[in-house]
Design a protein that fits this description.
The structure is a single chain. The protein has 346 residues and is of the alpha+beta class. Among the domains are: 170 residues, BirA Bifunctional Protein, domain 2; 63 residues, no CATH class. The chain is built from eleven helices and seven strands. It has a five-stranded antiparallel sheet with strand order 1-3-5-4-2, with helices on both faces. Strands 6-7 form a two-stranded antiparallel sheet.
Length: 346
Amino acid sequence: MANDVAYFAVKSISLSKINGRKPCSLKDAARHNLREIPSEFGGIGRINPMKTPKNWVIDGSGDADGVVALALEIANNAGVDLCHKRHDYCQAIELIFSLPDKSEIEPSKYFEKCLQWVERAYALPVLSAVVHMDESAPHCHVLLLPLNREGRYVGSAPLEKPETKKKIESFFVQVAGPAGLNRQGAKLRGGIKQAAIRVVLEQCGVMGLPDANGPLWPVFEAGIKRDPAPALEALSIDRQAISDAYKLQIIEQTNPIGIEAITPKTQTLSCVGIDQPPSPAKAANYCKPPNISRLEVAREAQQRAEVKHFRNARQTPQMVAVKNRPDDGLTRVKDEYAHDLSAWAD
């Protein structure tokens, strides 16, 4: 379909609780992927047990214990002792690839290509690769052991943002794009998000959706305001056109923050700011003599003289008596700022 979007996510598997994350071990992740957790089945879960038999394992063991045993075997062969690592170390890296619901792309061929790309892009041992067909959309879980070809345990280093960004670009170019999927758009933020909300709500009003949905409309409206991206896709509204229109509106605004346009006369090399010429009214005021009486001038001069005298008085050297010296009729002054101290020699 024309609006099918490629989905690719990556995360670490560990017992860390940093930032409120839910701890998860390699065995727990493998048990979920291989459907070994009975509590996940039932009427309230997302898993449809009637479709679970359609799941299949592309690579790795068919049970969670086998996945953990494989990880220990690979690590031991490389001389890495996983038992002596810290409690919250990165046990595995999990990648998730998903196809849109009701996509015309064949899941088996697509996920096989995803796994081949993972082996090239990450160059880490594959512990397990499982395809799920029993949830809302077909998707694939791939578990990797973070141990590079040199036998060094790299932990969560492959998940750093710059590397992940490169991986996403590579995945779209090599796998998702050739399969006919679109790139997943960035989340709408700031002014562009507000512009998208206005466009969507206006279109909903034209279509009569507020009246047609009755008491449910406030719920739909809240969802649109929280994230208008799904509504843009459902209404076939081009989000790039909204972004371009918003940016053009910002550019066309005249003097949006009150700064005069820079011209050769007003431009300055100062990094502090632009010194604008005064208005004619201010320039006229600058030329007027101050309206101050002679008495006020005299009082100000007297105050300045008193302040100056007070400061000088504070710095006047103290007259001190010199102990243990005969009275020779001389008065010596101790000046703490003087460099010649011969007068104080015994």
